Amino acid sequence: MSRIVPVSRALALLAASAILASCSGIGGATPSVGASISSQTKDLAVQSAGKKAETPEITVAPASLTFTAGGVPQTVVATTGDDRTISATSSDTACATVSPGSAHPSKVKKTGDGSDADRLSSDEDHRGNGIEKATFAATFTVTAAGAGECAISLTTNDKDGGVMVAVHVGAPPKLYVMNAGGNSLSIYDEPVTNSSSAGVTLTSGLSNPVGAAFDSAGNLYVANYTNSVTVYTSPFGNSSAPSVTITNGIGGPQDAAFDSAGNLYVSNNDSNTLSIYNPPFSNSSAPSVTLTGTNGLFLPQDIAFDANGNLYVANRGGNVTVYHQPITNASAPSVTISNGVHGARGLAFDASGNLYVANCGACSGGADGVTVYNPPFSNASVPVATITSGLNEIYGLAFDGAGKLYVANAGANSVTVYNPPFSNSSTAVVTVSSGMNAPVGVLVH
């Protein structure tokens, strides 16, 4: 934007030109008054244009994104020093897409000494006045398309001042179902539908499989009720066989889980114990810690950890016991949840830290129901909701990355899927049954 030369300055320029014109003994031609004014005005215009052409710095938050293919879209916010249009492009649309393709940023509201900085436009130079320049921001949505690595490029409309957002899209999750009646583990591609069928079925080494867990390397540990934990190395195929079989300290295992340190926890129904194993694991692994009935266990079933690493155990005897880390042979429950719990078989936490308990009607003489508890938990905790629709002799529970709840129904040979938010009236949106035979354990990974 050109600046208009003030009248007072124009008069000063005229006076200076007149002085130059009257001076003698100065070599060269004497500039004309018109030429002096034109030169000064041109200089000002160049200075102004130079300020306008300065490349605004673009910052972005977050600087990187991690997805699972098909996961929930995420947003990035680009911030600049002026209000020029910001363009967004993906280096590989088969990996991730971004929308909108361009956006005109909005001025960011300042929260300083009033509103002066908010009212100032970004192309004015306020540094001399000690007033902060306004900034502008635009929001873009990134959606994962397929597994891979790519980047989102954000630039101004003159293609300067660009910044890149690194994007990692992991392989889509799969649904893992332990079939106690079929001595098999069925693996389904996500997202599942009513007509989904297993793409891979494991059978080798399995005998009444009831629970499972993944270690940090993606290896699968399966609790077989007939007294073993079998370990399978990723990737999995129909012919996969166990690389390790753990039997020491095992007595009618129901579930397996890992803490943040990579220790393996196995709940044992028949021996009424919970065994903890330290890595690395082998056929000769033995428990380093064992909890028993004196530690509050009563026919332990599913186990889970909250965000703080506390251990939760579903006891078929009618409660959920909670243990703080570090866990030793002398650990006692810090909390025992019993309201709304009967024949507890499955446990799971959603992303908000709410606890879900699968209460098996056939295991307790009551009714099937998934009871939901809000933190913080105490001995007095009561359910805030109970899901009952579509359930039949329920066991395992699991959540996917979108917050959907999966329930294994051993009595109906099915896994039912429920969309959040959950309530007493929640109903299944998907029922998977192909390839299932008394499914009791369920995982999404």
Keywords:
single chain, 445 residues, mainly beta, Immunoglobulin-like, Neuraminidase, 3 domains, five-stranded antiparallel beta sheet, five-stranded mixed beta sheet, 10% helix, disordered N terminus
Structure description:
There is one protein chain. This protein has four helices and 34 strands. The chain is globular. The protein folds into three domains: 7-53, no CATH class; 59-169, Immunoglobulins (Immunoglobulin-like), CATH 2.60.40.10; 174-444, TolB, C-terminal domain (Neuraminidase). The two termini are 57 Å apart. It has 445 residues and is mainly beta. The strands form eight sheets. Strands 1, 3, 5, 7 and 8 form a five-stranded antiparallel β-sheet that branches. It has a five-stranded mixed β-sheet with strand order 2-10-9-4-6, with no helix packed on it. Strand 26 (344-349) and strand 27 form a beta hairpin.
Please outline the helices and strands.
Layout: H1 7-22, H2 33-53, E1 59-61, E2 64-68, E3 74-80, E4 86-90, E5 96-99, E6 102-103, E7 106-107, H3 116-119, E8 136-144, E9 148-156, E10 163-170, E11 174-179, E12 184-189, E13 200-202, E14 209-214, E15 220-224, E16 228-232, E17 244-246, E18 253-258, E19 264-268, E20 273-277, E21 289-291, E22 300-305, E23 311-315, E24 319-323, E25 335-337, E26 344-349, E27 355-359, H4 361-364, E28 369-373, E29 385-387, E30 394-399, E31 405-409, E32 414-418, E33 430-432, E34 439-444
